Amino acid sequence: MPTLQTYQGVYLWRYVPSLPLSVIFFGLFTIVTSFHCWRLYKTKALFTIPFIVGGVCEIFGYVTRAAASSNTGSLILYLLPSIFLVIPPLGFAATLYMVYSRIVCAVHAEDLSPIPMRWATWIFITGDFTCFMIQGNAAGLLGNENLTLIADYIIIAGLILQIIVFIFFIVCCGIFNKRMRAYAAESCPVIHLPWQSCLNMLYMTSTAVLVRNIYRIVEFVMQSVNQDGYLVITEWPLYVFDASLMFLLMVVFYLWYLHGLYCGRRDSSMQLLNR
């Protein structure tokens, strides 16, 4: 049975990672990411590439976590899961931001968006990239015992920024949703796009990312305050509030994407078709 090992006299892990759970989620993310890759190949919807990158990072995150279960004294096998599992929500978010822009453009309702469409995607993507740089660079510092506390604080700051950006994004979706419903009720336009269900998908997937980020913030706060905090020494919350939510997010996005979301090769020709 695997036991905790030390790296230069220091315990990197506070528990032995579960090999069965790591393998299960490695398999689940491999399957769902493969479906997204196949859909990308069929539709050429290039805006989903960041989403797929997020799925690939989940795969690497759990395969390296599985490897770490029998080698908890390896610094590289401690760092890699930390880095790979920080990135996916940022990739998912980038695609969700672009989906919003495509919904608005597809129904020709640019005037109803609270943010001018020429700026919307860039504002959200810039915020997402900033979060990526903050969290990605901080995750690389986790292997240095002297910088672990600083890394935790930096990651917490990145997660808080990501939550702020996401809340702003959800508010924008909500405002557009309200205006679009009023417009549809008054003008009765012929719209062949299931725009409401697409927005509902954005609400669900965004909520999943928000819950995951809140969990991660609490985890890193506990780690910075008390190395023996419950979320630091217990593994199951990771699979409930991170792995499971991110897997369900990928499934939900695939189902809505499968039924209605397609994009042409050029932004000017992008459209959403109800299948």
UniProtKB/TrEMBL annotation:
Annotated membrane topology: Multi-pass membrane protein
Transmembrane segments: 12-33, 45-63, 75-99, 119-141, 153-177, 238-258
InterPro entries membership: RTA1
Gene Ontology terms: cellular component: membrane
Keywords: Membrane, Transmembrane, Transmembrane helix
Pfam families per UniProt: RTA1
Localization terms from the record: Membrane
Protein's UniProt name: RTA1 like protein-domain-containing protein
